[in-house]
Amino acid sequence: MEIISVIPRGYCQGVVRAIQTARRTAQDNPGVKVTMLGMIVHNRYVVDACRQLGIRFVEDKTRTRLELLDQVDEGIVIFTAHGVCDAVRRKAEQKGLTVVDATCQDVIRTHTIVREHVKNGDVIYIGKKNHPEAEGTTGISDRIHLVTCPEDVRRYPGLENVLITNQTTLSIIEIQDIIRACLEMYPDAVISKEICNATRVRQEAVLALKDCDLLIVVGDSASNNSRQLALTGKQSGIPQSVLIDSALDLKEDMIRNKNRIAVTSGSSTPNELTSQVIDTLQHYADTGEFILPDSVSCRLL
């Protein structure tokens, strides 16, 4: 059995910056209530490590960031790497909160592009419904229209001077069908593909894999970029592609009789978790013994 460690994988710079910002904020403000508006990134191990620093989280998938702010009445509020719209910033300031912004630079760039375009036109934004990044971007203007699948495009006739752009963590394969549907309705639309470089190169590394029996993606099921990596594996023709939280999710039946197993991880996945998966697989390949670790955890960088 050959274990292939896919490179690149793991934390992107936006996630590193968000974690460093959260840790520095907690350490520099002892005794001050620090609240994260949503999950810092979509990985429960990272969230647990932040909680150990005293950071409080408010999260509810049924509520917007604007609504979640109702649960924050004092201290410091940290905006996550996914970004927020202007209304959230204004509400936080009106509540007298100290704002710390950990928005990813790639998301900021998308916001800049759409802010400029809505001055003179409409934006079709390809994204995931209820995802915080999509919420933050579409909340900038009522001229930004969320599209989640090709059929959604028909909901928006009569748009003017159309720009097509997208959530940064989508699959490079997935968005192509949606873009084609957009161009059928708006053939003169301008396209600005905003899949971030970290997401793109990780997906391209999976697409370049040859003769693998199994792709294991290490990442939280709430992480869109991790789910998209697993989907990319399936779309590339790998017979089996699975998403697991950690080495504790490995099953012997999953890996038995496999000749080549590739392992990668989402951009919000701690490297320690992926290393534990690779070590478990390598031990099985070398000895035939399937032994899971007693527990898993991670540090904040």
Structure report:
The protein has about 300 residues and is an alpha/beta fold. The chain has 3 domains: about 1-10 and about 195-285, 4-hydroxy-3-methylbut-2-enyl diphosphate reductase, catalytic domain (Cobalt-precorrin-4 Transmethylase, domain 1), CATH 3.40.1010; about 15-105, Rossmann fold; about 105-190, Cobalt-precorrin-4 Transmethylase, domain 1, CATH 3.40.1010.20. It is built from 11 helices and 12 strands. The protein has helices spanning about 15-30, 45-50, 65-70, 85-95, 105-115, 130-140, 175-185, 195-205, 225-235, 250-255, 270-285, and strands at about 1-5, 35, 55-60, 75-80, 100, 125, 145, 165, 190, 215-220, 240-245, 260-265. The strands form 3 sheets. The chain has a 4-stranded parallel beta sheet with strand order 1-12-10-11, with helices on both faces. β8 (about 165), α7 and β9 (about 190) form a beta-alpha-beta unit. The protein is flat and about 65 Å long. It starts with a strand and ends in a 14-residue tail after the last helix.
Write a compact overview of the structure shown.
The protein is of the alpha/beta class and 301 residues long. It has helices at residues 13-28, 44-51, 65-68, 86-94, 105-117, 132-138, 174-185, 197-207, 224-235, 252-255, 271-287; strands at residues 2-5, 34-37, 56-58, 76-79, 98-101, 123-126, 144-147, 163-166, 190-191, 214-218, 240-244, 260-265.
